From TrEMBL:
Purpose: Required for the insertion and/or proper folding and/or complex formation of integral membrane proteins into the membrane. Involved in integration of membrane proteins that insert both dependently and independently of the Sec translocase complex, as well as at least some lipoproteins. Aids folding of multispanning membrane proteins.
Gene encoding the protein: yidC
Coiled coil: none
Membrane topology summary: Multi-pass membrane protein
Protein name: Membrane protein insertase YidC
Keywords: Cell inner membrane, Cell membrane, Chaperone, Membrane, Protein transport, Transmembrane, Transmembrane helix, Transport
Upper classification of the organism: Bacteria, Pseudomonadati, Pseudomonadota, Gammaproteobacteria, Lysobacterales
Ranges that cross the membrane: 367-391, 430-450, 477-494, 514-533
Family: Belongs to the OXA1/ALB3/YidC family. Type 1 subfamily.
Domain (Membrane insertase YidC/Oxa/ALB C-terminal): residue spans on this chain: 367-546
UniProt-listed Gene3D superfamilies: 2.70.98.90
Complex formation: Interacts with the Sec translocase complex via SecD. Specifically interacts with transmembrane segments of nascent integral membrane proteins during membrane integration.
Length: 559
């Protein structure tokens, strides 16, 4: 297969992939609650009391809380004493927009936030049938309004106090360590009353679905439009599962598990509640205001029953991760947490590519250079395969005058023309299908790298050189797509047109570079860079082989 047909095959495969990707996002299968619950361990984790807001929006008690900030060097949390919930989180090492000369100090990326209409909060509390308990609406007290990690400190802690008239005291605590996105969390129960306290602890994430722009322009220009937004959870028996916001009602979750976690996922970042290891919890979903225009979706983990005798105390612990999808580090936080970077069907290709890219970036210090080195590694690995392709193309180039003569001889008799061409190719030992195998190898790499560039937070706002300030989004000036068109035009010039192609098809093939320019214009700049280097190295290899074939033919004629 000549190089022009290779481009056409690649285009068809790319279109098929993106159509499948869009279909899977909108209509892909979701796990049914019954099938998930069937594999759940047999443990008694039913809450002893109803949790506020389980089915309908609960009224918030009167009285505003105090906003308290807790921060380390990478994370700043805002905690409302009304409920003791995290109502805002700012990722200090990840800016909302790239740094530029006009905007040298952009605001940090905000993840959790209830200051706008899009509510997204991390809540927690206790419930009890037999006595008072502070749920996520209770009013706590904080002795400080700001707690910040100081230089030389390993960790900082914020305590929130609550006490009932019958002597039960609860201290809700948050702990931040240096350089960490993991927040330690505890609810300490002191029973100063005269009767046993019985109840459950719970942690939950509440979020409104983001307002999506389904326009074609956004789907082309915004990588986040192809990312998964919704709930996710992990259990040792069922591994990682996801649930889109539109599936919360169709497939409600009610699963007992030991050693799992719950999360809300989005492009590049996520929040996850991680119960204590070995604790038997019930994971469930709920919708607040299911008939409203903007309902809230809840993922919840409920602990086993807790009993605290008079004069005794109990410490319930969990952790919450609020931060980026830093691959290769998250499984150390909790099993399966690395799976929050969702590559879909191409995970087996994308994960090794990310690993190799990260190693190359550590070597050269630039993600763009790492992409170039990746191309060179792949080209070295398949050098002999592509050499066979280009030797075949070079021989077909030399045979083109004889093919033209066959066209004149047989005219419109296509069957005789095809048979004569196959006899000619067989005699000259030319394989017109030699170009297929390299495409079948490089195309999965192309799609895998597309997923890596679109989903890997390490490449978010990663600059290259010159005008490329972010390899994960399109080239703002379309220079890289234009360079790729030049590579394609040069490749077309070196490659003979397919034998037997009618003039109309030949003219259509000449427009292939323009078609690819339009497609590549909206791909991440890093991906276009990959394809330029890949095409450029192939062009050099093809030119070298053509020269070698021509020199060999010249020597043969002289001898």
């Amino acid at each position: 297969m000549n190089q022009t047909r290779t481009f056409l095959l690649f285009a068809l495969m790319a279109v098929a992939y993106f159509l499948w990707n869009a279909w899977e996002k909108d209509y892909g299968p979701q796990p049914a609650a019954s099938s998930v619950a069937a594999n759940a361990p047999d443990v008694d984790v039913a809450p002893t009391a109803a949790i506020p807001g389980q089915d309908t929006a609960a009224a918030t008690p009167s009285g505003a809380g105090q906003l308290v900030t807790l921060s380390n060097d990478v994370l700043r949390l805002t905690i409302d004493t009304r409920g003791g919930n995290i109502v805002k989180s700012e990722l200090l090492d990840f800016t909302a927009t790239p740094r530029t000369r006009k905007n040298p100090d952009p605001a940090p990326t905000t993840l959790l936030d209830n200051s706008r209409d899009d509510i997204y909060v991390a809540q927690s509390g206790l419930v009890s049938n037999g006595g008072a308990a502070p749920d996520h609406h209770a009013l706590f007290h904080a002795a400080q309004s700001q707690v910040k990690l100081a230089s030389g400190q390993d960790s900082v802690r914020l305590d929130l106090d609550w006490q009932s008239p019958n002597g039960v005291k609860v201290v809700k605590s948050y702990v931040l360590k240096a350089h960490s996105y993991v927040v330690g969390f505890g609810q300490h129960i002191d029973n100063g009353g005269s009767t046993p306290w019985q109840g459950n602890a719970y942690e939950q994430l509440q979020r409104m679905a983001p307002v999506e722009d389904h326009g074609w322009w956004k789907s082309l220009t915004d990588p986040s439009s192809h990312s998964f937004f919704g709930g996710g959870w992990y259990s040792p028996q069922d591994k990682f599962q996801t649930l889109g916001f539109d599936a919360f009602k169709k497939h409600p979750l009610n699963q007992a598990t030991i050693g799992g976690w719950i999360s809300m996922l989005q492009h590049y970042f996520f929040v996850a509640w991680i119960p204590a290891a070995g604790e038997a919890d019930t994971f469930s979903t709920a919708i607040l205001g299911p008939d409203s225009a903007r309902p809230s979706y809840i993922l919840r983990a409920v602990s086993p029953a807790i009993s605290v005798a008079p004069g005794q105390s109990y410490q319930h612990e969990a952790r919450i991760y609020i931060g980026p999808k830093l691959q290769g580090t998250l499984d150390a936080v909790a099993p399966g947490l690395d799976l929050t970077t969702y590559y879909g069907w191409f995970t087996l290709i994308a994960q090794p590519l990310h690993w190799l890219l990260s190693k190359l970036e550590a070597l050269c210090g630039n993600w763009g250079l790492a992409i170039i080195l990746l191309v060179l590694v792949i080209k070295a690995a398949i050098w002999k395969l592509t050499a066979l392709q280009f030797y075949s193309a070079a021989r077909m180039r030399k045979l083109q005058p004889r093919v033209d003569a066959l066209k004149e001889r047989y005219g419109d008799d296509k069957m005789k023309m095809q048979q004569a061409m196959m006899d000619l190719y067989k005699k000259e030992k030319v394989n017109p299908m030699a170009g297929c195998l390299p495409v079948l190898i490089t195309f999965p790499v192309f799609i895998g790298l597309y997923r890596v560039l679109s989903e890997s937070v390490e490449l978010r706002q990663a600059p290259f050189y010159g005008w490329i300030h972010d390899l994960s989004v399109q080239d703002p000036y379309f220079i890289l797509p234009a360079l790729y068109v030049l590579v394609m035009l040069a490749t077309q010039w070196l490659t003979p047109p397919p034998a037997g192609m009618d003039p109309a098809q030949a003219r259509m093939m000449k427009f292939m570079p323009l078609l690819f320019a339009v497609v590549m214009a909206f791909f991440p700049a890093g991906l276009v860079l990959y394809w330029i280097i890949n095409g450029g190295t192939s062009l050099i290899q093809q030119w070298m082989i053509i020269r070698r074939v021509e020199q060999a033919d010249t020597k043969l004629r002289i001898s």
